[in-house]
Amino acid sequence: MSSNLLEQLKKMTVVVADTGDIGAIAKFTPRDATTNPSLITAAAQMPEYQEIVNNTLLKAKQDLGAGAKEADILTLAFDRLAVAFGLKILEIIPGRVSTEVDARLSYDTQATLNKARGLIAQYEAAGIGKERVLIKIASTWEGIRAAEILEKEGIHCNLTLLFGIHQAIACAEAGVTLISPFVGRILDWYKKETGRDSYAPAEDPGVVSVTNIYNYYKKFGYKTEVMGASFRNLGEITELAGSDLLTISPQLLSELQSTIGELPRKLDAEKAAAMSIEKITIDKATYDKMHAEDRMASEKLDEGIKGFTKALENLEQLLADHLAKLGAGAVDKAA
Question: Using CA atoms, how far apart are residues 147 and 170, in angstroms rounded to an integer?
């Protein structure tokens, strides 16, 4: 009798939980987990995590001292909250957690470096080594350059908001640990562009894009891992069985777990190595040219950065509301 699809997928692909909900992570036992401001915002509104949120806010306010600006308190609290959830997640999973750099820094290499180093310092202060954390950075040219420097410092990076082959090649040439091409968002763009309601799984533009990236990496021996992300349906996941990693929402993990059937491997490193693929070298001029010519990638990257920024602003508002409810007197009690 066939086992469920999740069990079979785990035998050929590292399964990652795309959530900040610790309960969901414990249920599906992934090796790794990814978070972002939207996921942390959702988790921060759950009753079981209110203590983490409140304590993080109070400590940030205490540490910055009297007269600290609310914006500075919220920035510090967000970074600490991201790490606090990361630490909770690392108590459950055996592998790595991805923690995201502020999307508003996506076009600033130095600011991205500073933020990444600060996040790693927090993890190390809590006793977590660099090998268990992936710093999540948008796949802009500036973000990729920051990741290249961080990787040389032993800080591993997950390059997100990746939609085009030019972004993927630039990441691989920079020695990035892992990339997260966004399957579902690519599909969204093509459905809107063409007016089609759906695509067969094998023809799904997001699936095709990730397959091409995977084959390119394996053909030329790049060590950068491919982690498909942002899935809209089960077919996208099963068509990418064999990818290095796949980060999957709890809803789709549940569907995989409840579905019985055969799951054939679709991506194969040995087969990719034998393919005839043209090698491309990416410098800034080539990256910029290819990015400008790829309307889908340029539009989705811009949209994604704006979306992550909005999610962060929503989280900051949520934290500001929490801070107001806690009141100034709560700081004295926590001192």
Answer: 11
